[in-house]
Write a structure and sequence with these properties.
Structural class: alpha+beta
Number of strands: 14
CATH architecture: Sandwich
Bound molecules: 2-oxoglutaric acid
CATH class: Mainly Beta
Helix content: 10-25%
CATH superfamily: q2cbj1_9rhob like domain
Strand content: 15-25%
Number of domains: 1
Shape: globular
Radius of gyration: 18 Å
């Protein structure tokens, strides 16, 4: 069983996020990093490309933060992490959801001196889903520090009024511009940098503002893999199709298809094809101990 403590649940409810210093098994990290670098080199182990590829080696400006979405479709070793039972079960219990399915995974690589990502709320991007809820597990593949462009959370912002979309996501001029214009009057902006060793993780609510400043170090990579999950109760919102993801909607239906949005955990149940595609590999992940 992969269960957060009552203190961790309380802290997630209060702050809108939770930091877990040790989440991935250290011995598995070298293999994950190797597969991470392969996908950024466009080596698709399964023969399929991810759904979104925002980096082309030798073409994309070297200081832009690099992002791939749905790397599980391209590389099963990365899928073993982003589709894992540990990620799903821990998140469902932490966020008090009946179960979770993967909406999308991400691989994000902020190179030395790499640019910022906008401080945003994930759920604001989800008007193709109903309800637009999300809970995220962000996993560090490098040691992170406040000046290496790590993710920052705005404590308590999940309790603010829901803001509309605003600002440019990649390399914005001011990564805090959107959150500053959304903050309720009289509220202090409390930014918390996630400083964890490689293998550490952070979990956040879909309405928690978060983003990351430029990587100020010329010598530090900042790589992470991320599982964005939605409740198993969530359905398609046919009124607002998403230009990429709504292609996976079965015509006339609002249920999400487990072939594309697998259930990672729901009272012990997992989508049946996960076991063959992304088997639990002993030594890759540990149950959070703190
Ligand atoms: O890794 C980052 O800098 C931002 C990631 C993010 O936006 C997310 O995990 O929702």
């Amino acid at each position: 069983m992969c269960e957060p403590t009552p203190e961790q649940i309380e802290s997630y409810r209060r702050d809108g996020f939770l930091i877990v210093e040790r989440f991935l098994e250290p011995l598995g990290l070298a293999r994950i990093r190797e597969h991470f670098m392969n996908v950024f080199d466009h080596k698709w182990e399964t023969g399929l490309a991810p759904d979104e590829v925002n980096y082309v080696p030798g073409v994309t400006a070297p200081d832009l933060t690099r992002q791939l979405c749905n790397v599980w479709k391209a590389d099963r070793a990365l899928g073993e992490v982003t589709l894992s039972r540990q990620v799903g079960e821990f998140t469902a219990r932490l966020a008090a959801l009946p179960g979770v399915r993967l909406a999308q995974d991400n691989a994000i690589w902020k190179p030395p001196s790499g640019k910022a990502l906008l401080c945003h709320q994930d759920a604001a991007y989800l008007d193709h889903l109903d309800p637009p809820n999300m809970a995220t597990c962000w996993m560090a593949l490098d040691d992170t520090a406040a000046d290496t462009g790590t993710i920052y959370y705005v404590r308590g912002s999940h309790r603010w009024l829901h803001a509309a979309l605003g600002g440019t996501f990649h390399a914005p001029d001011d990564w805090l511009g959107h959150v500053r214009s959304s903050i309720p009057s009289g509220t202090e902006l409390e930014l918390v940098p996630i400083e964890v060793p490689a293998g550490g993780a952070a979990f956040h609510d879909g309405w928690t503002f978060h983003g990351s400043p430029p990587n100020e170090r010329p010598d530090a990579q900042r790589r992470s893999i991320i599982s964005h999950m939605i409740s198993t109760d969530t359905q398609w919102n046919p009124e607002h199709p998403h230009p990429i993801y709504s292609r996976y909607r079965r015509p006339g239906e609002t249920d999400l298809d487990e072939a594309f949005f697998p259930i990672l955990w729901q009272n012990g149940y997992r989508t049946s094809w996960l076991e063959g595609y992304a088997p639990a590999r002993s030594g890759v992940q540990r149950i959070p101990a703190d």
